[in-house]
Amino acid sequence: MDPVIIVGAGPVGLALALALAAQGVPSVVLDEGDGKDEPRPARSVVLRADTAAMVERLGCTTLRDEGLRWVGWRGVRRRQLVRHLALDLGLGGTEEWSEDPEAPSAPAAPLHIPQHALARGLRDALSRQDLVTLVTGAGLDGVEQDRDGVIAHTRGPGGTWWRGSHLVGCDGARSTVRKLLGIRFPGRTAVERHAVAALRTELPWPGEALSHRQPPWRGAPDEITARPLPDGVWRIDWLLPPRGDLVTPDALVARIRETLAGWCEGVTPPYELIDTGVYTLHHRLARRWRVDRVFLAGDAAHLLGAVGTQSLDEGFRDVHNLAWKLAHTWHHGASERLLDSYQSERRSAVADRLRAADQSLPVLRGGGGLRAYLPGAGRGHDALLADGHVGRGPLGAPPAHPHSPLAPEPTEGRVPVGTPTGAPVEDVRVTAPDGTTVRLRDRLGHGRLLVLLVAPGTGVWDRRHWRGAGVMPRLEEAVRALPAKAEVLVTEAYPGAPAHAVLLVRPDGHLVAAFSGVRPEELYAAADAVRGGSPHPETEPGAEPGTETGSDTGSGTGSGPRKASKREAKAEAPSGVKTGAKTSTKTGTKADAKADAKADAKAGVSTGSDRTADTR
Asked: Does the pTM exceed 0.70?
């Protein structure tokens, strides 16, 4: 079977290739550039605990070596400290929890890293993968689809045809894939504009990030943000008027000196200026994220980043959602429902994030007219802004999929637990099949369902004693019969779960359902719903339980990437579509456009101009 073609070798494209390789799926990454990333310390990214853990699982070591987890968050207005949060450096893992739902908990510490260091770490991990082929200098100029696959044409002296099972456009805000598909990219231009500097200095709150609103010194902007990096480096952002004058080097140096003096009792401390820049944030959302065998991910599908939201965070969540679905399709075939669920789940989640940011902006930037309608407005503007930066609330929390098309029907055996259905599960300690104790999050990303048994007291017994006792034999028999590959894990306790509860978890860590005890039929039905039903429903009734997709074998042959000859490309191209450098897949009807516009209106997403905007 042909590999997956990934267009774009930014962090999202590289992460997708690694995520597919971890699940035994080969890919070809088409990089328009030369495979090198220019060091720009002022261009850094903030990853929340869930996305940072995902990237680390992919083998990216620079997160640990060149990133920094904040120890706290400070919110200051004028001269007063109005918000101070201590952050959990344990990645948000649940060791203990309170029965009191109002009990405060420390947010998981975000990780801050220069983007070039992140990309380098992903490329290094890619170099250790035999299932990934990285092709540099390969600009895309044509995409064709047929019933069995996708053909991509690259331009240039070495231009050629590539044949793949699917294609994913991870090629940024100006996505060629999106343009070739004719997908609109509406939204808002220049939502926020910032001057930014990376400098080495000492500030009074080492290791803590800061949001300073309405600084008291003359000429200060409405908001300044300072975020620490390793080796005493800080990234400082100054909020600018959306369409103001250019920021000259002299003006930026003056801002730096005034800001440092304002934070250090009127005296500018010694500093080393490393890098500077000005960037503009835009909010946009592609109308469609899937057209047959072609998908969009990352900035090609969405742009966001105002008031603490993080665009790359959402791009990595696209990867986590899409990779296991493509892997299941590649190995076993898949229903249309499984592949459609990517757009349904992720586009809705990003639309919610954009809507929350658009509603928050008038309040947080001085308007105040929508305060009564804001989620969580009772906690105040500063709490809302802090939540966006540290990864909580409507601006920052990992999304849930309560209305996913993959959600199973309710049954009488279901029980509520501390995690809502469709939300990410808690990162509790679990016992793996080999007897080792690991975090639940460590078992994600391998394309298999997780079946978690809550069994108090198992920690004091040797595994060989309880593995064949109680409900374990019956549970393992039920799991072997599931229509998708699954792994049994055991935990001492899970928030809100009764003893002997069984939780079914998706490969990307979202809770499917929780059952009161071992219920083979209900567990089977839930697992079948997660895979979107049988890819070949006409053969399903006669199949023996567990024989269709429960093993590692499938329709994939493990073939590597291959170039398609021009004759082959023409022969396999759909009728009526010309092959060559100017080809594109024409998709979408007026009915589709109306349906998409109606969905946008329902989600509250601003459509604005279709003009694709520059990004930082």
From this structure: yes
